[in-house]
């Protein structure tokens, strides 16, 4: 579309060449969301035409990339529309087995009954937002816990899943503690393994986890899930993928309340901070999004800071930098240094 | 710091860190490394591995957060979904396999992050931190004596969950109590910035999470990479000797790109020896500034100074004189460079 390329040149090296077994952490706050950056990761991996002008680093044309996107806060419709604005047709890419979407939003806490599934699924698909607040009080969850064994739920639900085009799998949370995470891990891993069957030698599978902190926030220590369990869950998924991109909220209350001397931090504050900081210690790179310190501006949407994480395994030669970004009305993004335009 | 003189510290403390990092004489069986996002322990762990490989020490990495086996690590133990007892068993098993072929009988066990273990919500009633760590260090059988060094990394900035029992001590204080050496890591550029502020009596700046700025996890930005000046990590070491005496010292570990992996000589220096941290004093401030600039040579050479000191001034001579009239003579020893002027003598 527009005057600027879909992938800003400044950003290209950071989103297009992800080394093996690396974790990229994208942190966002309420005023500076990470959707646009996730879309840039998608574009860098999936866009068919080699970005010739500036993409000197994606020269090995042979390595095709495949993406599995697991989204906990946004629906497939959202990603499809937004990707279209970048020139990516997710429906077509799904058919070509280059892209798979795992829905962690619409039925995460909806216990599917085998009989009710056909009638309920269209309604859910069209209005995913109505299901999100269905965060039941603990009493109700306990009541539901003995209901379906987690692994049996999804297979019984195969038919309606196929009915909804584009969504490879819907995640369900049932039970508590590690067992429930294990079931979800199995679901995501099965999608990834399925993608791998369509891969050739040398292809790379990239896993994007969009805001898995929702899972921690909605369950928490009372259900046997804490930062360690979440981190282990992510490690398990990482083992199936070539590289992993993960977005996480780092709003001040979620990070800083637990570090103060007040000792009044709530479990979610402690666990979220432990998860976010722990992941930053593991990550190869941390891309932090925040708003301008000086307030809102007409031509700047926020600040992107790219730093090296503390990861041990990979040789880390990432160049750290800080830049400003601006999201235009048409969805195009420009990234530029301070003082440039 | 100044009282304990620098050269004494230079010899003793450099020897100490060299011994600790190279795992000689099992100077420290349990080393606790406290790191933060601003200065991760990665470079230090790599340095440990590098030195261990040079002296053929068997390296085991217990991975709580590392996904893939890093290079030069002999054994890699993943911990996902394992109880502490299983981890301990596996760690001893990997060494049993090579124990016969490994002549050095020294081994290094690294734990890349102890936090997940301490945070775990899993009911692990048998978990007891001291005995878990002790199980690595204690010899498995009295005959096979193995010198084991354990290096445990603890991320300081990860918040701790509330204690299960209000009377129990926190895991961190337990760790600091158990450890024979405690290494706290700082970023060199931050140390420099804080020192510069302190020198001007300003409040030292804070970085990263401590800034408490929304959306900032890491403050580190290597603006200084280009100059290469302030790279490296600062090691704050607290070592407890067997006698009970503690040693406190600050060191500087240069970045790995500055030396080859095979480098044998000690690369760690005292922080006080760093030119950037302790810039050399200007020699005799003021002495040089007093001299006015001119085209004449106003100074004296050594010989001139000696000669001048040798001159006996007339009033000294007069005091030792033998009476009036004797004083006031012109006392002059002719030097060899003097040109005797006869006319002048006649006067």
Annotate the secondary structure layout.
The complex is a heterodimer of chains A (341) and B (347).
Chain A lengths: L11 H5 L5 E7 L6 H12 L18 E7 L4 H10 L4 H6 L3 E5 L13 H10 L11 H7 L8 H4 L1 H6 L3 E4 L6 H21 L6 E7 L2 H6 L8 H12 L4 E7 L2 H5 L10 H16 L2 E6 L11 E7 L12 E7 L5 E4 L5
Parallel strand pairs in A: 1-6, 1-7, 2-3, 2-5, 3-4, 5-6
Antiparallel strand pairs in A: 7-8, 8-9, 9-10
Helix pairs in contact in A: 9-11, 11-13
Chain B lengths: L5 H16 L8 E6 L6 H13 L3 E6 L11 E4 L5 H16 L6 E6 L3 H5 L9 H9 L9 E9 L15 H8 L2 E7 H12 L33 E8 L5 E8 L15 E2 L16 H4 L11 H9 L3 H6 L22 H5 L1
Parallel strand pairs in B: 1-5, 1-6, 2-3, 2-4, 4-5
Antiparallel strand pairs in B: 6-7, 7-8, 8-9
Characterize this entry briefly.
Chain A is of the alpha/beta class. Helix content of chain A is 35%, strand content 18%. The radius of gyration of chain A is 20 Å and the shape is globular.
Assembly of the depicted chains? heterodimer
Strand content of chain A: 15-25%
**What pattern of helices and strands is seen along the backbone of chain B?**
HEHEEHEHHEHEHEEEHHHH
Largest sheet of chain B: 9 strands, mixed
The largest sheet of chain A, given as strand count, sense and whether it forms a barrel, is: 10 strands, mixed
Q: How many helix segments of chain B? A: 11
H/E element sequence of chain A:
HEHEHHEHHHHEHEHHEHHEEEE
Low-pLDDT ranges of chain A: 51-60, 115-163
CATH class of the largest domain in chain B: Alpha Beta
Strand content of chain B: 15-25%
GO cellular component, one term (chain B): nucleus
Pfam family, one (chain B): Elong_Iki1
Pathway (chain B): tRNA modification; 5-methoxycarbonylmethyl-2-thiouridine-tRNA biosynthesis
GO biological process, one term (chain B): tRNA wobble uridine modification
